[in-house]
Design a protein that fits this description.
With 144 residues, the protein is an alpha+beta fold. The protein is built from three helices and seven strands. 35% of the residues are buried. Pfam families: DUF1801 (PF08818).
Length: 144
Amino acid sequence: MSTKTKLLAGGNPQIAKGDGDGPVQAYIAAMPGWKGNVGRVIDALIDRTVPDVSKAVKWNSPFYGMPGQGWFLSFHCCAKYVKVAFFRGSALTPLPPVESKQQQVRYLHIREGEQVNEAQFSHWVGQASKLPGWGGVEHQRASP
């Protein structure tokens, strides 16, 4: 990026909200250090698993969803890991490993040096994309 993006708590990039792939790619490009590679891997796996996924940046985080179903996943940077939120994670098999105070939400924390288990992550994404999501999703396809 030509200008330095402000990093919020934990190194989370401050990116203006917006619909579509462009704002999500701007967010990923601004993710600091090793977290940027994690963001690229997550985004690519979601694109491969759910080719008609809708994307947006809201609340300084990328969101992924299905038109008419709502958002099924989001992620953001924390100080020591990238936190992936599955909004209906309690319905996934096997359960993503980290509990939430919200009963239906489950998390996956990806730390520096850890590899994303691509098969398991894609399996979760495939399941999550078929469940009713959170909030509304306008149809903003990943590719123009």
